[in-house]
Design brief:
3 helices; single chain; elongated; about 100 residues
Length: about 100
């Protein structure tokens, strides 16, 4: 009997693609935001939020194909965007 898990499982190739995407976005956007006038931590927060909010749904929905219908995919995108933004904030601006 196969049990379902709350955790999303994906293979190592998808993880490499995700982390490469996040690193590239950070390399491109952080200096750009700093030139605009944002502080270093703020530019990291914005770049990581954008990268994770785009990268995680891409990997899970497109590469892994782990959704049943478009409503479930939209719900996953919204929740993952909120979680990625909150986690980026708490990692860069600890309480």
């Amino acid at each position: 009997m196969k049990e379902s898990s709350w955790f999303i499982k994906f293979n190592y190739k998808s993880a490499i693609i995700f982390f490469t995407f996040v690193i590239i976005i950070n390399i491109i956007l952080c200096p750009l935001f700093q030139q605009i006038g944002f502080a270093y931590q703020t530019s990291l927060f914005i770049a990581n939020s954008i990268a994770c909010s785009i990268g995680l749904p891409f990997v899970v929905l497109k590469l892994e194909g782990k959704y049943k219908n478009s409503r479930q995919a939209l719900k996953f995108i919204l929740i993952s965007t909120a979680v990625c933004t909150i986690m980026s904030y708490f990692l860069l601006f600890p309480l």
